[in-house]
Design goal:
heterodimer, A: 419 residues, alpha+beta, Immunoglobulin-like, 3 domains, 9-stranded mixed sheet, 5-stranded antiparallel sheet, 23 strands, B: alpha+beta, 7-stranded antiparallel sheet, 16 strands, cytoplasmic vesicle (chain A), AP_mu_sigma_su (chain A), small GTPase binding (chain A), protein transport (chain A), Adaptor_comp_med_subunit (chain A)
């Protein structure tokens, strides 16, 4: 299946290679570089490239390309999903998935890659198992290791891999037993010029941080499970129980993981928490234009909307912008990407934040065809916009009383206002 | 000069490196060492020294640096002899790194690699399964042809290993050996055949992968394992699932007949299959119908469906393609929701999924139409995603949604991403051709775009308009004129060529303009693009034929220019046209037909999706993405005309079951699956690793799953209601524990028996959930259960010791299990059985369940409540009371006794319960209809109501033959409890955990005579169904109970204080009930 893996940074250096079968020369990456050149933008490099003898399947994550070499037919998603899992594991181990982190921990990276694939077929991809096999580096451990000469390789054998609950390691012990759930909902929306909603939908995830000793068997129930239209589960969840009772019943992995992701059924109207008043115009035959946007809360359910950021990809003819924000600060990158970012912060309904000013255009160039669309980010704490509520969490199988907590957050997902 | 200094610095750099390297030997600075790879000989020398050092830390450091070199792609093979010596190192990390090195370089140093083989051979015999597995892994990864026989031997041995993990590695090794030496194929197939029979979920994915790689054509190996694979699928790890699903898709296409021929009528039946088994029975009865799906075919579809909910995009896609390729068309619709979900994922996943959706949406628009808006484009999407979305939107366009779509397209056309804007214009063109209603609208829109500022947009519009006009040539003179004007400004060759072609084609409709255009073109001919030149020639020729008076000279001029053009195509064309149109003596017969040739009716181009031809590739494959056949792509065969013999899939044991109706099968499949996973669990918990905790976890999980499946089936079976679900838990439990072939008949019989006679045994058995034990005498069961539990442990130990090959293992297990169940059956007191089972389970579960033991309720005078007064009930009176017994209908229900009195002078017939209006979640088990009630007669019936631990009213209708009365039952809060027996110590412990929010308390003032122990007991027990906890202190009284529905503890404490006060404390998780209870108890206690 997966023959080799090359890690390539933005400037096109291959800084790590790993082969699971016989060695494939680095020169195979030339085909990739060719495609990258053609695509102009990193985002547009095709994930699947065919070369005379191999196929290259790549992902782009955190400014790195993970390029895998394939020789025979394989479902491309299989490889893509695996590569993302590799990147997730790096993220999990080193706190970031960057060239520097990987170079600093090259031995651990190599050990991980060795365990994750055998002959190109995934072997252990569960973070719990991997962490038993290879301990993540911490400052303390590296100090201890250098003194005592002990290693990062776990000397206990990974029992999880052998059990039928492969996602949980055995013998977990905590003094404080805690189970936290974050219900994070994102609003994806396209708002058209006139302010009406073209498309809106709520996507949510429940991320869990479970630090419970032993083998707890949890069941999480909702006040209104019917809201969830389409759900995807962590493998630990018992599907049948959900089908029949709409209760999430599972033996959790240890630590942080994504329990479910869901989509709220499209019948429900989505409450859009913010509105934007905008007036962007470019004058014909003149080297300037006007830019004026105001943001206000719409249906905020009594909660403050915070962390608002507006990002605008301005047309190429824009040379510079002279704006004054009533609140927050803005930056404009006039050289490369022509991106305007306005960091607004909180909305106070008494004084709505606005950003006004002039736009300098390249003289002589035709005025832009279309006004740029505004991408908005925001955050509302303590609110799940769909109204989803966790009813209760029960624990079976262990005696102690865990500390439980649920947090709700609503965020903007791909929230776009066309102007 | 400069080269000199360069060389110098290089040298000094190298020197430094050595120095530092030596330093590293003493101080060990692992992270610092990696920056220094200038890979000189000297440095390697240094590494060699380190490897040969006696200190592990130095070796480790050296190995780490070597790995760093390998990661960079540098050749470290010359260190091979030094490294290979360390293969037997005791230090596990050194060992692992040596393995990594060995696998990478053994191919280059075959002779030296042989030195390591004996180490692995030794490790293959290690008692620890993980060491055996890793030895096999490395041994098989060393690509040295000499050791092929050793590998073969090792694989064969490992395939018979007791540990499934080792067997999994054996499956991986098969592929490695096959790629090293394809000659071993036959032997390897034998191993694959053997491993395919494996029942472990760990092995399944890997062995199917080996099968796909080594012998994908040996479909015959799958037959016997087909059902097992289907049943195991959900429990296999996600990567294995993908491989198995792809393989089974191919299998299904060769073994079953096409389900696609069916008509609409059958579709309903198909859908109902999920809902009810009876329906299915009906279906099989209707076997005369032209198409009946093979039950195995159905099995595959049913068992893969839950995987659509996987978090792994590859699994979801694999299931989606399976449904697309093998399920009846009416059922494939369910995949769209999941595929649309994947669009939230990262760009690469989106790309692949959108490609597949594009292919699907061509054939079956309806599937994705409801999700139209999910394909709307965002300005931040990468271009490749945008174009794919656009493609899908275009495919989905129809009369109903076209206006919305066109509005959306308008936004896209203005996009700053011009490539995308151009694609949008093409999309509009396609919509215009496909939907005749909007052709004109589209055309007008496109014409507007002609005045766009961006040239690419205009050019694309011209090309599209050209195509559209070609389809309906009449009445578009205006547009053509407009386009002719554009020729002055537009520079994109394709667009210019298109305009010229259009004018030439319609030259008779625009007789005034055409010659003028030709004149202009003649002027600029030499500077035009080749493409445009060809079209100028064409235009000239056409005009020459229709309007030679005006254009003869011009055409000749152009032909002359063309004759000397640099491009041979143009010279060719010129010669050809000249011969054809200009009459001369040598011109043959053809020139007579010149007009017909040039101005013939030309078929309009079909605007088709580029994904049109992709559907012959299996979806989700690499070949589909690339639209070319990838190496190793296995064609999906067409459905066979006649299904091959289905009996090949029968496994011996299941053969017996051949006679069952498929209706029975749905149910039976579940226990058999449990069976497998259990045996696997037994297998995997082989050595010390499996502590009782993990055991209990998985057990309880299984139980709850079981409970679910019983719930499912209870919904299915219409004849049994309510009680059915419980009885089936019981039945399934028996079913599981009985031997395989007995299982079916037993459970079926059991079911029937149960239906016929609701003996006290079975009803008691029902109440035996995990946390409860029967209310009957605890002490009596104690001794028995203890012995029983010992038996269980013994038996477990036994299975652990008997690590026989799998099939034998299974039968052993079964027998033991069978005994286990039969023993309690043989016991004289059937009432003991539930508590026994509860105790058995208590053994597996943690002790927390042991704390909550339901005890006998304290006897209190019966308090009846009026349900229906005889005045309002037309002579029928109904009273109810709570008997405080565990409900026989379900462990979450409160039992209610209803007494019906007939106060009239005639018979009341058919008393039953009609419509129920229950709050959500509440459930009710009704009494059987009473045929008749004599005058003055009275009858008591029992019901069970699951109040969900709330005091909400259960309203329903009590009906007679003639009337219906609305009645309701509202439970006093005290009746929602079941008494619990626990020791004072347990009580205190539980109370300690239920503090804070979970505690409510109040002060009571009353006369001292009210605070004597008997009075308090009486008063509290009258109000609430609680159990007394023996107390060591005189002034504290404790009572314990649990809520019926959720089983949460409810702890009541009455603490007598000085004077005539007392404190009442209630600790419970169910704070609402707790406070209600407090409110009810307070007045009762303070009353005189």
């Amino acid at each position: 299946m997966i023959h080799s893996l090359f890690l390539i940074n933005c400037s096109g250096d291959i800084f790590l290679e790993k082969h699971w079968k016989s060695v494939v020369s680095q020169s195979v990456c030339d085909y990739f570089f060719e495609a990258q050149e053609k695509a102009a933008d990193v985002e547009n490099v095709p994930p699947v490239i065919s070369t005379p003898h191999h196929y290259l399947i790549s992902i782009y994550r955190d400014k790195l390309f993970f390029v895998s070499v394939i020789q025979t037919e394989v479902p491309p998603l299989f490889v893509i999903e695996f590569l993302h899992r590799v990147a997730d594991t790096f993220q999990d181990y080193f706190g970031e998935c960057s060239e520097a982190a990987i170079k600093d921990n090259v031995v651990i990276v190599y050990e991980l890659l060795e365990e994750m694939l055998d002959n190109g077929f995934p072997l252990a991809t569960e973070s719990n198992i991997l962490k038993e096999l290879i301990k993540p580096p911490t400052i303390l451990r590296s100090v201890v290791n250098s003194i005592t000469g002990s290693s990062n390789v776990g000397d206990t054998l990974p029992t999880g891999q052998l059990s039928n609950i492969p996602w949980r390691r055995a013998g977990v012990k905590y003094t404080n037993n805690e189970a936290y759930f974050d219900v994070v909902e994102e609003i994806d929306a396209i708002i058209d010029k006139s302010g009406s909603t073209v498309f809106a939908e709520i996507q949510g995830v429940i991320d869990a941080c479970i630090k419970l000793s032993g083998m707890p068997d949890l069941s999480l129930s909702f006040m209104n499970p019917r809201l969830l239209d389409d759900v995807s589960f962590h493998p630990c969840i018992r599907f049948k129980r959900w089908e029949s009772e709409r209760v999430l019943s599972f033996i959790p992995p240890d630590g942080n993981f994504r329990l479910i992701s869901y989509r709220v059924s499209s019948q429900n109207l989505v409450a859009i928490p913010v509105y934007v008043k905008h007036c962007i115009s470019f004058k014909e035959n003149s080297a300037c234009g006007r830019f004026d946007i105001t943001i206000g809360p719409k249906q905020n359910m009594g909660k403050t909307i915070e962390g608002i950021t507006v990002t605008v990809h301005m047309p190429k003819v824009v040379l510079n912008m002279n704006l004054t924000p009533t609140q927050g600060s803005y930056t404009f990158d006039p050289v490369t990407k022509k991106v305007l970012t306005w960091d607004v912060g909180k909305i106070t309904p008494q004084k709505l934040p606005s950003l006004k000013g002039l736009v300098n255009l390249q003289s002589g160039a035709p005025k832009p065809e279309e006004n740029p669309s505004l991408n908005i980010q925001f955050k509302i704490q303590q609110l799940a916009i769909s109204g989803l509520k966790v009813n209760r969490l029960d624990m079976y199988g262990e005696k102690y009383k865990p500390f439980k907590g649920v947090k709700y957050v609503t965020k903007a997902g791909k929230f776009q206002v066309r102007t | 000069m400069s080269s000199n200094s360069f060389a110098y610095s290089e040298q000094s750099g190298g020197g430094e490196a050595t120095e530092l390297g030596q330093e590293a030997t003493s101080t060990i600075s692992p992270s610092g060492a990696f920056g220094l790879f200038s890979s000189d000989l000297k440095k390697n020398e240094d590494l060699k020294q380190m490897l040969e050092s006696s200190k592990d830390s130095a070796k480790l450091d050296a190995m780490k640096r070597i790995v760093g070199m390998m990661a960079k792609g540098k050749n470290a093979s010359e260190l091979f002899p030094a490294v290979v010596k360390n293969v037997a190192s005791k230090n596990i990390e050194i060992k692992k790194l040596v393995y990594v090195y060995l696998v990478r370089h053994a191919e280059e140093q075959q002779d030296l690699a042989l030195l390591s083989i004996s180490t692995f051979q030794r490790a293959l015999k290690d008692p620890n399964q993980l060491i055996r597995a890793s030895a096999l892994r490395v041994l098989s990864s060393i690509r040295v042809p000499i050791i092929v026989p050793i590998m073969m031997l090792a694989i064969k041995e490992a395939a018979a290993d007791l540990s499934p993990y080792v067997r999994k590695n054996a499956a991986h090794a098969i592929q490695k050996l096959y790629s090293l030496d394809p000659e071993q194929k036959e032997m390897l197939i034998e191993v694959i055949e053997k491993l395919l029979k494996d029942k472990s979920t760990l092995v399944a994915g890997s062995v199917v992968m080996a099968f796909e790689e080594v012998c994908p054509d040996r479909i015959d190996l799958i037959h016997k394992n087909y059902r097992k694979l289907c049943n195991l699928l959900v429990d296999v790890e996600e990567w294995g699932q993908v491989v198995i699903i792809h393989m089974l898709t191919r299998y299904a296409r060769t073994q079953f007949v096409s389900p696609w021929t069916e008509d609409e009528g059958l579709e309903n039946n198909e859908k109902n299959f999920y809902e009810s088994d009876d329906e299915e029975k009906e279906k099989t009865d209707k076997r005369k119908k032209p198409y009946v799906m093979d039950p195995d075919h159905r099995l595959l579809i049913r068992n893969t469906k839950p995987l659509l909910q996987s978090r792994n995009a590859a699994v979801v896609m694999a299931v989606a393609q399976l449904f697309w390729h093998i399920s009846p068309k009416s059922e494939a619709g369910i995949i769209s929701k999941s595929l649309v979900r994947l669009l939230r994922s990262n760009r690469e996943v989106q790309y692949i999924v959108l490609q597949n959706i594009a292919t699907m949406s061509i054939q079956r628009k309806g599937m994705f139409e409801p999700y139209l808006k999910s394909f709307y484009v965002r300005s931040t999407d990468p271009t490749m995603i945008k174009t794919l979305k656009l493609e899908i939107l275009t495919n989905l366009a129809n009369e109903a949604n076209i206006s919305t779509l066109l509005r959306e397209f308008q936004t896209y056309v203005k996009s700053q991403d011009k490539q995308f804007a151009a694609a949008t214009i093409q999309a509009i063109g396609r919509c215009a051709t496909n939907i005749s209603e909007v052709t004109d609208t589209c055309l007008n829109g496109l014409v507007c775009l002609l005045s766009n500022r961006d040239e690419i947009v205009v050019a694309e519009s011209v090309v599209v308009i050209k195509k559209l006009l070609q389809m309906q040539p009449a009445q578009h003179g205006e547009i053509i004129k407009h386009m002719a004007k554009l020729l002055d400004s537009i520079t994109v060759p394709v667009a210019r060529a298109s305009i010229l072609w259009l004018i030439g084609e319609n030259c008779e409709r625009v007789p005034k303009i055409a010659p003028d255009v030709l004149r202009k073109m003649a002027k600029s001919f030499t500077s035009e693009d080749d493409l445009v030149k060809l079209q100028i020639l064409n235009l000239g020729a056409k005009l020459y034929l229709t309007n030679s008076r005006q254009t003869k000279l011009l055409t000749q001029y152009i032909l002359n220019l063309g004759k000397y053009d640099q491009n041979y195509d143009i010279r060719d064309r010129t010669r050809f046209i000249r011969q054809l149109i200009v009459p001369n003596e040598r011109s043959g017969a053809l020139s007579k037909y010149a007009k017909k040739i040039f101005l013939a009716q030309k078929p309009a181009p079909l605007l088709e999706s580029p994904f049109k031809d992709r559907d012959h590739f299996q979806l989700g494959t690499l070949s589909h993405t690339l639209n070319t056949k990838a190496t190793g792509y296995l064609e999906l065969s067409n459905w066979p005309e006649v299904a091959p013999d289905p009996s090949v899939r029968n496994v011996e044991v299941i053969e017996l079951a051949k006679e069952w109706t498929p209706a029975g099968k749905t149910k039976k499949e579940t226990p058999s699956k449990k069976f497998y996973s259990e045996s696997e669990e037994e297998g995997s918990s082989s050595d010390s690793n499996s502590d009782s905790e993990s055991e209990s976890g998985s057990k309880s999980g299984e139980q709850s799953e079981e409970g679910n499946s019983s719930d499912d089936s209870s919904e299915d079976s219409s004849s049994e209601s309510g009680s059915g679900s419980e009885s089936e838990v019981e039945n399934q439990r028996t079913a599981k524990k009985n031997s395989k072939n007995k299982r079916k008949s037993d459970s079926e019989d059991g079911e029937k028996e149960h239906e016929k006679s609701k003996t006290s045994e079975s009803s008691n058995a029902e109440s035996s959930s995990v946390e409860e034990s029967s209310s009957d005498s605890e002490t009596e069961s104690e001794s028995d259960s203890a012995s029983e539990s010992r038996k269980v442990t013994k038996e477990k130990e036994k299975t652990r010791q008997d690590r026989n090959p799998v099939p034998k293992d299974v039968s052993l297990l079964d027998l033991d299990d069978f005994n286990l169940v039969s023993t309690p059956v043989a016991l004289p007191m059937p009432a003991l059985r539930p508590s026994l089972i509860a105790d058995l389970e208590g053994l597996n579960l943690s002790a927390s369940s042991a704390v909550i033991n339901v005890s006998t309720p304290v006897f209190v005078p019966m308090k009846t409540h009026v349900m229906l007064h005889r005045m309002s009930g037309k002579g029928l009176a109904a009273h109810y009371y709570f008997p405080r017994q565990p409900c026989i209908f379900g462990d979450k229900m409160v039992s209610v006794q209803v007494t019906l009195n007939n106060t009239t002078d005639r018979k009341i017939e058919n008393i039953h319960i009609g419509e129920k209006k229950l709050p959500t979640g509440m459930q009710m088990h009704v009494f059987n209809p009473i045929e008749s009630l004599e005058p003055e007669g009275s009858i008591t019936v029992s019901m069970g109501i699951d109040f969900c631990d709330s005091t909400q009213t259960a309203s329903f209708q009590l009906c007679t033959k003639d009337d219906c009365f609305n009645v309701s039952i509202q439970p006093p809060v005290g009746e929602l409890l079941l008494p619990v027996a626990m020791s004072e110590k347990d009580f205190k412990k539980e109370q300690g955990m239920l503090t804070g929010m979970n505690e409510t308390s109040t002060i009571i003032i009353a006369a001292p005579q009210n605070f004597t122990p008997p009075v308090i007991l009486q008063k509290i027990v009258n109000v609430a169904n609680v159990g007394v906890v023996p107390s060591g202190q005189d002034n504290i009284h404790r009572f314990a109970a649990k809520t019926v529905h959720s089983g949460s503890l409810m702890l009541v404490t009455v603490e007598l204080k000085e004077g005539s006060t007392a404190q009442l404390i209630i600790n419970t998780e169910k704070t609402v009930i707790g406070s209600v209870l407090l409110r009810e108890l307070k007045p009762v206690l303070s009353q005189g």
